[in-house]
Give the backbone structure.
Amino acid sequence: MKNILIVEDEPEIRELLGNYLQHDGYQVRLAEDGVAALSLFSKETFDLVILDIMIPKIDGYGVCEVIKKQSDVPVIFLSALGDEMSLIKGYDLMADDYVTKPFSMPVFLRKVHALLRRNDSSSTRVPSCLIYEDISMNFDTMEVRSHGIKVDLTAREFDLLALFLKNPGRVYTREMLLDLLWDYNAFVDERIVDSHIKNLRHKLGDAGNVIETVRGRGYKVAKKDP
């Protein structure tokens, strides 16, 4: 049974989410502030974190930053802050989705299903290894190395890099990437793609330059010469 951590200081929303997810077959743990959330996270294994931003003691941004430094667990931001800077900040912290209040519960549940389904599929890859210039990917151990040095990627970043390296020369638009890797592109801001590309390039260092921006179209990895 999947274990989901809900961090929300509004009791009605916290209980509503908890009841819906439990009814959907998930195990749920609840926290009303950032300190309680990190305490629970340090003691249990979670498959997903649903995180409000404006919570007491430690805000959602701070909680997300700690979680992403320790784990690849997916994080969905849930907030009344829908302005551009709030969304960008959330994406830069490697949140996997950003949902603004008020929201549709059926749509939200489908986001949860899609995110958990994608994480499940990432754990069943056929063991293999892929090497492209100075980057190596091991699909058995989920290990990535750049210039021989291990690079810690989130599950989404790993999938994004794998897609590019398995299909060199192919240009992927933001819409295509959302459709392939996010599953619910109609409900996700396209800027999340740019944020993930930026983080991926940064983590890969100089080797990250293999991911090229195709102006006005999207992104690609150049096809190697025969």
Remarks:
- The first strand starts at residue 3 and ends at 7.
- The two ends are 48 Å apart (CA to CA).
- DSSP finds eight helices and eleven strands in the chain.
- The mean pLDDT is 88.
